[in-house]
Design goal:
Helix 3 crosses helix 12, helix 4 runs parallel beside helix 8 and helix 5 packs across helix 8. The chain has 12 helices and 11 strands. With 380 residues, the protein is an alpha/beta fold. The strands form 4 sheets. The chain has a 5-stranded parallel beta sheet, sandwiched between helices. Strands 1-2 form a two-stranded antiparallel sheet. The radius of gyration is 25 Å and the shape is elongated. It folds into 2 domains: 42 residues; 316 residues, SGNH hydrolase (Rossmann fold, 3-Layer(aba) Sandwich), CATH 3.40.50. Helix content is 45%, strand content 14%. The longest helix has 41 residues.
């Protein structure tokens, strides 16, 4: 009798444990399944299984767009189709051969120029290209590029397209931190001369830009939940590095001097290179979201942020380099329409922001090319 009672108690205990474990397991699995279904229905974009890497390793540039890429790119706020031509240029196929009586503009820059959060048709460089204005564009923008990489891409690839005008788009992080801490090729000023340095391939391998190369090969990579958690951790690590680990952001005088030395020397090299090819150069200062949308707050800006544009404008003016800032016109448009021009989380321009930027820049570019608003050439 005692034995039977003991066995009954043991069975009840096992059943209770099994019930508790089952409840816990279901309590864990149910939210995961629910999240998986929700992500697949409403998130999409970056977690699509066909969202392939858009960049490849490059021995000169560090990385470059994959030629003939055609795929999906996105994040929480957007999902767009991206294509590259046979030479790795964003958008339609561009031949080095010129079209008669059509001016050609080569754009150089980072992800803002590439059109990170826009489709080919919605990126401002692509919008300018499609308009009937006597102008065609070549997009040499690449996500994550520092000013040195932009210079090398123009030097080795840009002039084979025989441009009438080179537009260098400058975003503030090209100055503050990309030129000093980028995993790609770096430069340094020694005894007044600009010297190109190599780049750390191991550091390059750790970059988020290449961390998707092997994804999709394991079953876990098919899960949107896993990829959301994995990407969030990678993004947090990158933001921690950007916001806390880069020492020059503390505003030390040495880092301040060094970063401006590099930037100024590179800008002079851009000017020299364009003069050697008898091509006009225009530097465009691309503003950050917080400058345009005053009601927004952006974290991670360096203490020197407010002084960057005035410093840059003064240097360009002193050295006879033409520049243009669309900031005032973008601010006026935002204040009048209250339509977001930037994604809040991603901080790249929305399709509307790209459209407005193209609209603002078009008359400036046409004037530089000697054309009127209809694209006809103006009298010399």
């Amino acid at each position: 009798m005692n034995t039977a009672t003991t066995e009954t108690s043991a069975n009840r205990f096992r059943k209770a444990i099994l019930l508790v474990l089952t409840t816990l397991l279901l309590g864990i699995l149910f939210p995961i399944v629910l999240a998986e279904v929700g992500l697949r229905l409403f998130w999409g974009g970056y977690y699509e299984k066909d969202a392939e890497p858009r960049y490849q390793r490059d021995e000169i540039l560090g990385w470059s767009p994959i030629p003939e890429f055609d795929g999906i790119h996105g994040a929480a706020e957007f999902k767009v189709r991206v294509t590259h031509d046979t030479n790795g240029l964003r958008g339609r196929e561009v031949s080095p051969a010129r079209i008669p009586d059509v001016s050609r503009v080569v754009f150089v820059g980072d992800s803002m120029t590439y059109g990170h959060a826009a489709s080919d048709e919605d990126a401002f460089v692509g919008i300018l290209d499609r308009r009937e204005n006597g102008m065609e564009t070549v997009n040499l923008g690449v996500g994550g590029f520092n000013t040195g990489q932009q210079f090398l891409r123009l030097k080795y690839q840009g002039f084979k397209y025989h441009p009438d005008l080179v537009v260098l788009d400058v975003f503030w992080n090209d100055i503050y931190w990309e030129n000093l801490d980028s995993p790609g090729p770096r430069f340094k000023v020694r005894e007044g001369e600009l010297v190109q340095l190599g780049f750390d391939r191991e550091e390059l391998n750790s970059e988020l830009i290449f961390q998707r190369e092997n994804e999709g090969k394991e079953l876990r990579d098919r899960s949107y939940v896993y990829r959301l958690i994995s990407d969030s951790i990678k993004l947090l690590r990158a933001q921690f590095r950007d916001n806390f680990s880069r020492k020059f952001k503390e505003g030390t005088e040495e880092k301040e001097v060094q970063t401006w030395e590099i930037m100024e020397a590179l800008l002079l090299e851009f000017k020299k290179l364009c003069e050697e090819h008898s091509t006009n150069l225009l530097v465009v200062l691309i503003p950050d979201q917080v400058e345009v949308e005053a009601d927004k707050t952006v974290l991670g800006l360096p203490p020197q942020f407010s002084s960057l544009a005035p410093h840059l404008e003064q240097f360009l003016s002193d050295n006879g380099i033409e520049y243009y800032s669309p900031l005032d016109d973008l601010k006026i448009h935002y204040e009048e329409h209250q339509t977001p021009l930037y994604f809040n989380m991603n901080r790249h321009m929305t399709p509307e922001g790209n459209r407005v930027l193209a609209e603002i820049m078009e008359p400036v570019l046409l004037d530089k090319l000697g054309r009127n608003e209809t694209g006809d050439r103006t009298a010399p």
